[in-house]
Write a structure and sequence with these properties.
two-stranded antiparallel ribbon; 79 residues; alpha+beta
Amino acid sequence: MTGQPWRPYSPAVATDLLRVRDVTGVEIRLTRDCWEEHIVVRHPIMRRHFDRLHQAVASPDVVHRSPTPRETRFYYRKL
């Protein structure tokens, strides 16, 4: 695991369910809205793997960049 410890949702971080630094040091934030309205809707199998998201971002097997102009990255780790 790198740098920052895993921080699950807490009232102090209002809408952030997860904050973690990726392998390049970039802080990744997962908001409640993104989780509930995007990830769980489009990728319902992920609902049962929320506890593994931190590990996938902090120590992925593979990272792919989106071909779109946005700085989107996709983090993959074997279950």
